[in-house]
Amino acid sequence: QVQVVESGGDLVQPGGSLRLSCEASGRMVNSFTLAWYRQSPGRQRERLASVTSGGTTDYAGSVEGRFTISRDSRDRAKNRVYLEMNFLKPEDTAIYYCNAGPPRWYNDRTNYWGQGTQVTVSS
Predict the structure, then answer these.
(1) Which residues make Cβ contacts (< 8 Å) with residue 77, sequence separation at least 6?
(2) Side-chain half-sphere of 22: how many Cα atoms within 13 Å?
(3) How many Å apart are CA 90 and CA 29, to the nearest integer?
(4) Beta-carbon count within 10 A of 2 CB
(5) What's the CA gap between 28 and 66, in Å, rounded?
(6) What does the DSSP assignment read for 25-78?
(7) Mean pLDDT of the chain
(8) 66-93 residue pLDDT tens
């Protein structure tokens, strides 16, 4: 079992910045890929960025250059992943979710999700 908890959502003006945090805790979490997704009303959940256990990052084209994902894996049972968001636009308004995905060699294929944190970009 892995527990995932996000925080940091807020109301921010266009052009502003915000940092989201996620804490993923549990057995083997140090081996999981951690990722950020978002979902706005009427739209599918969108994968934004991910970071593997080895530190390899990947970004969606819609946020590359504006968003930065980082990971703190010093505690093997409690990893933290951050999403630094810059130059925010009104279309970035959404609920942002953190995801913990198991490595390929792990028998249990369960993906774990947090409850989400609201980001609103508006003047």
Answers:
(1) 25, 26, 27, 29, 30
(2) 30
(3) 33
(4) 19
(5) 31
(6) EETTGGGSEEEEEEE-TTS--EEEEEE-TT--EEE-TTTBTTEEEEEE-SSTTE
(7) 96
(8) 999 999 999 989 999 999 999 999 999 9
Q: Enumerate residues 6+ apart whose C-beta is below 8 A from 56.
A: none
Would you place residue 12 in the very low, low, confident or very high pLDDT band (cuts 50, 70, 90)?
very high
**With contact defined as beta carbons under 8 Å apart, do 23 and 5 qualify?**
yes
**Pairing outcome for strands 57-59 and 33-39:** unpaired
Instruction: Provide the token pair at 92.
Output: 């970035």
- Quick one: DSSP state of residue 104? T
Contact 17, 72 (CB under 8 A): no
Token digits of residue 99: 């995801």
Report the Cα–Cα distance between both ends of the chain, in Å, rounded.
40
